[in-house]
Amino acid sequence: MKRSACNLISNSVRRGFTLIELIVVISILGMISVIGVQAITHLFEADARSTASIVEQMTREGLSAQFRTDVHNALSLSSAEGNGFPSLEIKQPENIGVTYEFKDSIIVRRVTGHARFEPRDTFRFENVSCRFESTPQVATLTLDSIPDPLSPAHRMDIMEDVSPSQFKIHAVIGHQLRYLKTISNSEEVTHAE
Known about the structure:
10 strands, five-stranded antiparallel sheet, alpha+beta
């Protein structure tokens, strides 16, 4: 009888977790979830930066191809500060005019002289300044990157090289000598076509 009572008492006693064990497990799970959320946030930020970089590179390539084609077919060039904004006017055969104007981080390309319509292209860039230079035979479009004061490097006072980079497109009237020259942090690369 004694033995069955001990078995009954030991069977009725439940083994469970103590409050301290539960608090430790919950705090460990909380730390793991915070680390996981931070890792996922950094992945999304890196993805956004790489997507923006790819879009900007494609925009630069499209702009440089169109700019070189317009200048290659030009009869004359003239750069000015139209309405307080940098601009370049290109006169082409058959009374067609092409105007490039930079305003609010957007380069607008307008074609005038078509009978039916006047095409307009836009090339959007973030944190850049633009200038157009022209001689009677050569046109140059220069984009200078402006460091973003709201970037993580500036917000966290991280010391890193944030010197502006330059993107230049040179084009010559009527010549196949067309090239794209990129100057980035004192490194110079020239791509010939």
